[in-house]
Amino acid sequence: MGGPEEPVTLPAAELAALARRAGFELVGFAKAEPIPGAVLLDWLTAGHHADLDWMAQRVEERLDVTKLLPGARTVIALACNYWHSDEPSPVARYARGRDYHATMRDRMRALRRSLRAKFPGVNDYGSIDASPVMEKVWAVRAGLGTVTKNGCFTTHEFGSWVVLSAMILDAPVDAYAQPLDQDPCGRCRICIDACPTSAIIADRVIDAGACLSYQTIENAGAAPEALRPAFKDTVFGCDICQDVCPLNMTPVKAGARFEPRSLATQSVRALAAMTKAEFDAWVPGSPLARAGYDGLRRNAAYALGAAGDAGARTVLERLLGDPHEPVREAAQWALGKLG
Ligand code: B12
Ligand code: SF4
Ligand code: SF4
Asked: How far is the C-alpha of 299 from the C-alpha of 219, rounded, in Å?
């Protein structure tokens, strides 16, 4: 009697072709080996996850994908380019079009369908952002690029304008990538100096509580007063440490799924004055839904105050009577900044 049967070895080149056909621009393969604990635990112990409590949960799974898929052997790292244009917008680039989770989900489903048809009996676990999977680490291990000083995953082909996902398989493949043996940053520190809130506290380490991305998207309450002046021109997410990066100077235009929607072309003032009907027309199906109607108007009020936009007095005065306390408080603060 033998032990459990060794799973069949899959052809990496064929899997990569299936993934590209499903719509993923970059594909790579890494062995499903555990991630050294310090990568995550030091960050959590220092409290850099702010109140993202879910980051401190399911740590075992984050560090070992065999806890998510028994017998896991391979992680397919997948990336999609999302850059569209340099048009100024108060919305971060990744969020200007249709929600990227939906796009990645459709592409992952297509990949799973073709995988099951060709290689029946192989099990998988798909991660799109919200799963306890360290997607940047897997993208590095699969040789797709590097985590640069700004904490972003940066590729040769598309710069850091990519979103990531990962598919874990319980079968080996016949060729694994080597992580790239290079540090594209060298002695550059442009992003560290450009970050308006000093959130890049060390090489590749982001203090989420200080990051405008966290403050504009995840923080449902009031933003700390010291950070509000940095909200200038920013209502959802932040691209500053990517916009200034020399590795991002030759972006590639993404496909229609990432085409900016009308919400991305709104001014900060229009977003502060947004009615519920406008919100319902502009936001559902886009990543901005996460901040909600009140969160977006609160952010827009901070941004108007930070910019000292005297023409915004009327809209801010109207928000003083808003039923949502953080919106009222943000309007009060902003009016104080207008003098
Ligand atoms: C928590 C989180 C945040 C937090 C914290 C940011 C952070 N850097 O951790 C906040 C809310 C601030 C945030 C902001 C943003 N995020 Co975010 N976020 C995540 C999330 C959910 C988890 C990241 C995580 O595990 N952090 C914990 C730290 C400790 O791990 P880490 O970031 O991987 O960093 C360590 C390792 O990479 C390690 N490392 C580096 N190289 C190597 C190599 C090897 C082999 C090993 C073992 C380790 C290692 O060193 C780093 C420091 O310890 C991921 C989705 C996911 N499931 O992975 C998206 C994700 C990282 N975010 C993403 C995006 C798009 C953003 C924003 C650009 C959005 C925006 N425009 O506003 C900003 C960028 C801010 C920045 N400068 O990093 C993308 C990344 C895209 C990219 N090209 O990098 C992801 C992958 C979502 C996705 N599915 O596409 N995010
Ligand atoms: S996303 Fe903005 S706030 Fe966050 S680290 Fe980059 S520049 Fe700083
Ligand atoms: S701005 Fe410079 S230091 Fe920062 S990520 Fe880009 S190359 Fe690296």
From this structure: 10
Q: Just list the catalytic residues.
A: 129
Between the CA of 116 and the centroid of ligand 1 the distance, in Å, is 30
Answer yes or no: is the C-beta of 212 below 6 A from any ligand 2 atom.
yes
In a domain, 40, yes or no: yes
Nearest-5° Cα angle at 152, 88 to 271: 30
- pLDDT tens string, the chain, 339 residues long: the values are 444 678 899 999 999 999 999 999 999 999 999 999 999 999 999 999 999 999 999 999 999 999 999 999 999 999 999 999 999 999 999 999 999 999 999 999 999 999 999 999 999 999 999 999 999 999 999 999 999 999 999 999 999 999 999 999 999 999 999 999 889 999 999 999 999 999 999 999 999 999 999 999 999 899 999 999 999 999 999 999 999 999 999 999 999 999 999 999 999 999 999 999 999 999 999 999 999 999 999 999 999 999 999 999 999 999 999 999 999 999 999 999 997
Q: Is 143 in the same domain as 289? A: no
Domain presence at residue 236: no
Can you give the length of the chain in residues? 339
**Of the ligands numbered here, which is closest to the C-alpha atom of 288?**
1
The domain of 278 spans 261-339
Same domain, 157 and 297: no
Q: For ligand 3, atom 8, name the residue with the nearest CA.
A: 185
- Cα of 12 to ligand 2 centre, how many Å? 36
- Of 119, 175, 189, 180, the C-alpha closest to 153 is 180
One domain, residues 155 and 34: yes
Q: How far is CA 58 from CA 24, 54, 63, 70, 124, in A?
A: 27, 8, 9, 16, 19
Query: Tokens representing 187?
Result: 């002695």
Residue that finishes a domain, picked among 169, 191, 224: 169
Strands (E), 144-197: 146-147, 153-154, 162-169
What is the distance between the alpha carbons of residues 273 and 201, in angstroms, rounded to a whole number? Answer: 35
Q: Which one of the ligands is nearest to 96 CA?
A: 1
Tally of structural domains, the chain: 2
With a 6 A CB cut-off, is 191 part of the ligand 3 pocket?
Answer: yes
